[in-house]
Amino acid sequence: LGLIRVISRLMRSGPPETRRLCTLCLTTLSFQKDLRAALLKEGALRTIGAVVQRREDPELTRQGAYALLSFAFDPQTREDVVAEDALPALMGLLDRGGGAGSVDDATCA
To answer: Which of 19, 13, 6, 2 is CA-nearest to residue 63?
Structure first.
């Protein structure tokens, strides 16, 4: 649990390369069903949702979207996606209009 807290904190406030590595770490951890409860407890779902919503880096957006979907399709954590305000981040990925902040087809798929 302590490691997740540190990674979440660095993901929000560290230098760009550190934020990138921390994002990749948290999103990878989210694919492990038995770690999702710890991620939720430490606020990682909300943090990952913020990364997806910002769409600053296509790779991180894609990784974050996969992580959010892991939570959304898990019956144990499905409601947490809504409670932690991560659903708007996923819904925002449906914008393919090509304007600022829109995402590519690979991310939407």
So the answer is: 19
pLDDT at 68 over 60: yes
What the block records as the tokens of 57 is: 């880096």
Give the pTM: 0.79
CB distance 22 to 11 below 8 Å: yes
> What is the token pair recorded at 5?
């807290």
CA–CA gap between residue 42 and residue 105 (Å, rounded): 31
Tell me the C-alpha to C-alpha distance, in Å, between residue 57 and each of 20, 45, 84, 91, 104: 9, 18, 22, 17, 11
Tokens 């990952």, located at residue: 48
CA pair distance 104, 107, nearest whole angstrom: 6
Render 95-106 in DSSP notation, one character per residue: --S-STT---HH
pLDDT of amino acid 97: 52
